[in-house]
Amino acid sequence: MRPHGTPANPAAGDIAPAVLAIGRPDFPEVLIATLCRQAGVGHCMVFSLTRAGAAHCLLDAGNIPIGGDLGAAYAGQFHESDPNRDAMFEGEESASIVLPAFAPRMYGARYRKMFFVDSGIVDKCATAIWVEDTCFYVNFYRIATQGQFSDAQRARLQAIAPAISASVARHFQQSAATTPEQSLAALFATRPPLADLTPREREVCRRILSGFSSEAISRALGISLHSTLTYRKRAYERLGISSQSELFAIVLRLLAGPRSLN
Fold first, then answer.
1. pLDDT digit string (tens) for 5-27?
2. What pTM was computed for the model?
3. What is the C-alpha to C-alpha distance for residues 47 and 206, in angstroms, rounded to an integer?
4. Can you say how many angstroms the Cα of residue 18 is from the centroid of all Cα atoms in its chain?
5. From residue 159, how far is each of 6, 97, 152, 153, 251 by CA, in Å?
6. How far is residue 13's CA from residue 9's CA, in Å, rounded to a whole number?
7. Is residue 124 helix, strand or coil?
8. pLDDT tens-digit profile of 234-260?
9. What is the DSSP letter of 25?
């Protein structure tokens, strides 16, 4: 039995670099590198949409030279004619939405020419998540030189989409005055099951999540390597997990929850 530790996404540890980059200036670069490595994504764009009608391009990263122009055009007017709009606006708060598979016929002629013909985009996958009255719409693209997503790449994107959308939402919701380390500390201090750990177990787990080796954790905390390994073992037992990737999965599940995104 794993009362607390069942991962929301068993592959969560695979996107760990993007999670650790939340709140940092290099988040766009780390995100696209992670997506490229995990599913062959060439370009990523993130938009915020509200039920009141506002739209903004928040992130444009990857291999499309006119990505910035496309982002501005979409936020300016084309968001209103996006065939994914109805599916997004029917979504529930804090639930990740995996949007319909890409098909050129879904789009009007003007939209199709600007966003697919002129840009060289040949395939697209997308996900979205609502946080209060804002929808974070995350788009993954491939261009002509890459070809379309394979079935395996599509399946991979579908598997990591909830964690990616939660990470994107967290990044853009996070206060500029709050560092990633402070946010992680707050998560361990206030959110079960992480808050149920002893203070020393929390310190060890926070440093595991930050990429510290067991030896580096020992030096940072001024304790022996044996003690570090013992605290890690006890923490994992309390959480009902057995690996670092499962620890990441717990953090991602908490990040996707409404309390951590407010």
1. 333 444 455 788 888 888 888 99
2. 0.70
3. 30
4. 7
5. 16, 12, 11, 10, 17
6. 9
7. strand
8. 999 999 999 988 898 888 778 755 444
9. T
